[in-house]
Specification:
The protein is of the alpha/beta class. It folds into two domains: 158 residues, Rossmann fold (3-Layer(aba) Sandwich), CATH 3.40.50.300; 179 residues, P-loop containing nucleotide triphosphate hydrolases (Rossmann fold, 3-Layer(aba) Sandwich). The protein is built from 16 helices and 17 strands. The strands form four sheets. A seven-stranded parallel β-sheet has the order 1-7-6-2-5-3-4. Helix 13 links the parallel strand 15 and strand 16. Helix 1 crosses helix 2 and helix 9 crosses helix 15. The longest helix is centred in the middle third of the chain and has 16 residues. The N and C termini lie far apart (45 Å). 39% of the residues are buried. GO terms for molecular function: helicase activity. It comes from Scleroderma citrinum Foug A.
């Protein structure tokens, strides 16, 4: 187990350990996994920084193509295997691995049957888990069960203290997701670090296989204007691609920065920003909000503040009030809510 707060060199230690293990035994397979694609990419870059290039990076097509192709530099481009190019036969998989015995992927990918050919060529002997404190205990079980015949060693790297989130959010997440085991270490203690915007008249509308809420999109674009006028660094997160597109169009029409500004939840996992704006979208049915793990990702990206755009009436409903975001609203109380019309008039107080 490797323990340490951010900035203490945990990723550097991973790179050094991998290099040492590889030098000691070229045939020994080392798999490195993390909860987020971004964390995996960061480890790959650190390996390159120390001159170690004999690894492969297994990446999902959706993550790489839809959003993050630009994150992978020329060196990483030569090292990754995208999910739509996965080989199911041993010969093809071996040709792709090129004798590499250090494999990087997300924990979800490691549990995916589609990588079976690669795990036969590079058996899962040693697994290093980065950001281990962000992984639910139950998420390790499929890996342990699937690779019980080859597993020799687990290495957990992480920190039981969270340093990103303001206290009001971090403490709530600790109690409601991590059973009080995650300690918040942050200098922002103001409860106004998390607020809700009551978007009256904002309704969820089905659009293809996704959902959009025009009322929320309008409020989000107004917030973006206020943030830019105040030179605040911010990002916008929404669970639905149709809403992401609607917000991007609104930002363009308002002559605001829109590129690399609006994300769906999965594409922003592992990232952070000083200020986060969340567009919930749903106003009648909880939809995405019933997935507590992904909602947790959405609510834990800010370093200074988070504003959540939704309907107060919906958050108070029987089904929404039981969700993670509904419980957050209840924990903050009535004082956390701002009227949407006030935001449209430029007032955030």
């Amino acid at each position: 187990m490797i323990h340490g707060p951010p900035g203490t060199g945990k990723t550097t230690v991973i790179a050094a350990a991998v290099t040492s293990l590889h030098l000691a035994d070229h045939e020994r397979s080392v798999w490195i996994a993390a909860q987020s694609n971004v964390a995996v990419k960061n480890i790959a870059e650190k390996l390159c920084d120390v001159g170690f290039h004999d690894f492969k990076l297994l990446v999902s097509k959706d993550f790489h193509f839809d959003w993050h192709e630009h994150l992978y530099g020329d060196i990483l481009q030569a090292n990754f295997i995208r999910s739509d190019n996965f080989n199911k036969d041993i010969v093809g998989a071996a040709r792709q691995l090129l004798d590499a015995r250090v494999i990087l992927c997300t924990l979800t990918m490691l549990s995916n049957p589609s990588i079976a050919a690669y795990t036969r060529i590079a058996p899962v002997h040693t697994v290093m888990f980065d950001e281990a404190s962000q992984i639910e205990v139950g998420d390790y079980i499929p890996v342990i069960h699937r690779f019980s015949s080859t597993l020799r060693k687990f290495v957990f790297i992480g920190d039981n203290k969270q340093h990103r989130l303001p206290c009001v959010i971090g403490d709530f997440i600790s109690q409601n997701v991590y059973h009080g085991q995650l300690t918040t270490c942050h200098n922002i203690t103001d409860r106004k670090a998390c607020r809700f915007i009551d978007v009256k008249g904002g309704n969820e509308v089905k659009q293809g296989h996704s959902w959009v809420n025009r009322g929320e999109a309008m409020i989000v674009c107004r917030l973006a204007r206020l943030y830019e006028d105040r030179n605040k660094s911010y990002r916008i997160i929404t669970p639905y691609d149709a809403q992401r597109t609607a917000i991007e169009v609104g930002l363009k029409n308002a002559s605001l920065r829109w590129a690399n500004r609006v994300f769906n939840v999965d594409s922003f996992q592992g990232n952070e920003s000083d200020h986060i704006i969340v567009s919930v979208v749903r106003s009648r049915n909880i939809g995405f909000l019933q997935n507590e793990r992904r909602t947790n990702v959405m609510l834990t990206r800010c370093k200074q503040s988070m504003i959540i755009c939704t309907s107060r009436a919906f958050m108070s409903s029987a089904q929404a009030s039981r969700t993670l975001i509904g419980r957050l609203a209840a924990s903050l109380g009535p004082g956390a809510w701002i009227e949407g019309r006030n935001v449209l008039n430029g007032n955030l107080s």
